Amino acid sequence: xxxxxxxxxxxxxNAEMNRRxxxxxxxxxxxxxxxxxxxxxxxIHGTLTHxxxxxxxxxxRFDGWPKPITPIKESAGxxxxxxxxxxxxEKADADISRWAGNVDDAWLAEDLTWFSGAANREVRxxxxxxVTHFFNHQTHHRGQVHAMLTAAGQQTDDxxxxxxxxxxxxxx
Length: 172
Fold this sequence. Notes:
two-stranded antiparallel ribbon, 62% helix, 2 strands, Four Helix Bundle (Hemerythrin (Met), subunit A)
């Protein structure tokens, strides 16, 4: 079972890993970031943009953020200029951390019902499961970005959660 403390830890881990990935991606040219690399969302830029899209979609359900107007299948191209998703990512990470600080056990015990465009139907699921999926989605696609960055010769430093947790918890 996940707890509010887990959510706060994952929010901070998410923000730290995004700082590292965007830092490494920022050392590449636009052409290198946009180069098709065989990933599901195509490129480094496309995958980073899709992660942001997913965060916006889930946070529209969890915290009342504006829902992305771009359909999921077009999410990789939602933003073209790298400076824009980087700035949006920083704001999103701060907002996710703020939200995480307010999550409590009572909220986590509830279910969420929404219309899923991906499933093309109404879905009802426990918030505990959905928040787990939210963080898993980020980690899954960040792993793809990390592989693409590594192949492009960029370093992000360690990406494992356990060595970062003491530093993350110490900042909280």
